[in-house]
Every structure is written in C-alpha cells, then in structure tokens.
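Hey, I'm writing a tutorial for new members on how sequence and structure tokens pair up, and I'd like a real worked example in the thread rather than a made-up one. If someone can provide the structure for the chain below, I'll link this post from the tutorial.
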Amino acid sequence: MNFAKRAMLYILRKKGKTISLFLFVFIVAIFLISCFEILNASETLSKEIRTSLGASFYLRARTGVSMGENGEAQISENGIDISQEQVDEIMEMGEVKICNPINYGFVKSNAIHFIPGEKHSEESNMGKVIALAFSALAPDFTDEAAVLAEGRHITETDKRKILVSEQLAKANSISVGDVITLTHA
C-alpha cells in the first residue's frame, strides 16, 4: 500500500484526531501570519513616524569650560574641526535631507540698544546671535518656543539677513527691511 492511500484511510478512520490536528495547525499558521503582519506594520509605522517628526542630530566639537584661578571662565576646545567634506559625506548617504549649520556668538551695535540678558548688561550693550542657513529649522521655531511675527524665514540663499525678536524691534523702532550694522563682540 502506498503512502497517499494509507494517509486517506487514516483520515477516514480517525476523523476526530484529524480535525483537531488540522485546527491546531491552522490556528498556529494564523498566529504566525498575524505576527509577521504586525511586525511589518510596526516597521512601516516607525519609518513614517521618523520621517514625519523630522528628527535631527548635531555634530559639534567638544568644548570644556573651567574656572581659572582669577575666577574667569576658560573655554578649551579639543581641536576637532568638522570639515565641509565630512558634512558632504554624511549628506551623500541619502537619509539626511537638510544640513543647517549653526554658529553662536555675541555682537555689538552703535545703532541699536540690546535688551540686557543673561550674559550681558546694559553697559556692554551686546546681543546673542545665532547664524544658520534655515531659520525655520532653528530649535526655538521647531519647538514652537518662538513664532515668526512679521517677515519671512531666512533660507540658505539669503545673505546679510537677520531675524530680531519682537521686543528688540519695538525697543529700537526696527521694522522689516531696515538696515542694522553689527560688529563682533
């Protein structure tokens, strides 16, 4: 007697065992298919979330701040510079869509009076500036801590453009299109 014939005779004789075994295999198969579909859907969802959130990362040289003997803050850098070639290499990977270089500093101006703040006083008349290529991607704007009240955001094609706070603009009667001369502090 061949294999197929013996299997058919067993199925006809043991109908209860055959049905229960078939149901068990069927349920296990359904659970496996469900698990793979859930895995596939969660991977797709996580990719969509990462894309829609616009995750960002920072490349920066490590700096150390220490207090000197006379009580002045001393800033030491580790000497690592991030070159444009390194940035281009990261951009070529295809996952990074925009590079928004950011640089921080302080400026002075004889034409305007800065609002005294954390690291400057009325006597020093300094203001903190953030230089970047896309102002809409600045952390204050993406976190909605700041809102553009007038004008438009700065893009990488803009040269010699600046956004000022509404308080600074009101205090110095500055409006969109005015020319301000700033010097490094």
